[in-house]
Amino acid sequence: MALRMEESNRNMKSIICLFIICIITLFNSRCAHAQNDIRNKQPEIMLNEFYTARSTMKLTVRDHHRLDSLQSKYCTVKFRNELKADFQADGLDHDLLTMDNGIDAESLKTISVKKDPTKVNDYLVSYIVSDSDPSNKLIKKKVTIRLTVVNEKGYFKIDSVK
């Protein structure tokens, strides 16, 4: 009888150990999945941060250094060089990152940032701006910008606008 009790205790310990291993494995799997979800959302978070920061800027020629600072934080070196070349050619009259539509606090309320399922590193940023039609009537216009985001030195940054 004592042998049966000892064997029963060993079986129970084995079952408990197996149960604990299953719980730990399940927990680790969920943690890894959550970390991947966060990592996959980082480009979208970065784009939201960029357009939020950009919406507060009222740029004049003298304020161009503020835009440079913003671009150095959120754009790759390669893309910043392209933007500088555009600035030298067109001045502040052309804003590739907003497709010349600007973005303000009202537009920011409508912003949507989504991964483009057809391209590996592309994201679609869209928002609504107030504009006027040829008869000067106020209209709402949807702006959609396709951006490529890459990891540069451990940070997600805008690499191009298409």
Q: How is this structure best described in words?
A:
The chain is α+β, with helices and mostly antiparallel strands. It has a single domain, classed as Nuclear Transport Factor 2, Chain: A (Roll). The chain is built from four helices and four strands; from the N terminus they run ααααββββ. The chain has a four-stranded antiparallel beta sheet.
Element-level helix/strand string: HHHHEEEE
Low-confidence stretches: 31-35
Sheet/helix structural class: alpha+beta
**Integer tally of domains:** 1
| Average of per-residue pLDDT values | 81
The side-by-side strand order for the widest beta sheet comes to 1-2-3-4
Molecular shape? elongated
Query: What is the strand content?
Result: 15-25%
CATH C-level class = Alpha Beta
Integer-rounded radius of gyration: 26 Å
Task: Tell me which CATH architecture applies here.
Answer: Roll
Alpha-carbon distance between the termini? 79 Å
CATH third-level topology: Nuclear Transport Factor 2, Chain: A
Total strands: the figure is 4
Task: State the helicity in percent bands.
Answer: 40-55%
Largest sheet: 4 strands, antiparallel
Tally of individual helices = 4
